[in-house]
Amino acid sequence: MGLEENKYTHLVELGGSDYEIVDGEPDIRGWDVKNKVGLKIGEVDELLFDPQTRKVRYIVVDVNNSELDTEQKKILVPIGTAVLYDGERIHDNDNLHNRRSENSVSEDVVVESGSPLLTQEHNDTTYNPNDDGKVVVIPVSVEHILQLPAYEKEAISPETELAVRRVFNGLDETETNTGAIEYKPEEFYDHEHFNEEKFYNAKTSSNIRKKL
């Protein structure tokens, strides 16, 4: 299926849609996005979700106001690779329970996605997102942001999603793009990158609902 056919429409931005976040869950649009050492990557611009399953798949992050030396663009961040804080950790996994140690960057602000974690250069600065108010923490470096494709509304494709996956998997170009030919959304989103239970508290089948 060529992109010119414009039929890849199973992912929709929350803004301007007939949907909203379910009660009890925060709408994180406008929140700061930082890496695990506390440098601002950008802000949450949008949430990209699947209307059929009513699940958020990606955070759209605008890196134009980044404290890092990156190009101006928007990037896609798989929902299961991020952690929310709002004066405290909103969703607390057992493997992310401990506080930061005194001598190193602690695991409490690193997201385990079921795949190799993206590395960040060592930084002696202690960053505790619990003290930072409303913030989303994702484990990326400048290099990873540069590698991520620029997000454009209504221009997302299987190739785009596979490129994002390769970056968050830490894979190199030995993984070819042939997977795009057999791309099946119902299987693609079984990956831990899209485990929204690591992000949202809701124990429901979806985290998006039709507007009342």
UniProtKB/TrEMBL annotation:
Family annotation (InterPro entries): Bac_photo_RC_H_C, PRC-brl_dom, PRC_barrel-like_sf
GO terms of biological process kind: photosynthesis, light reaction
Gene Ontology terms: cellular component: plasma membrane light-harvesting complex
Stored Pfam families: PRC (PF05239)
SUPFAM superfamilies documented for this protein: PRC-barrel domain (SSF50346)
Chain ranges of the PRC-barrel domain: 27-88
Official protein name in the record: Uncharacterized protein conserved in bacteria
Natural source organism: Chryseobacterium indoltheticum
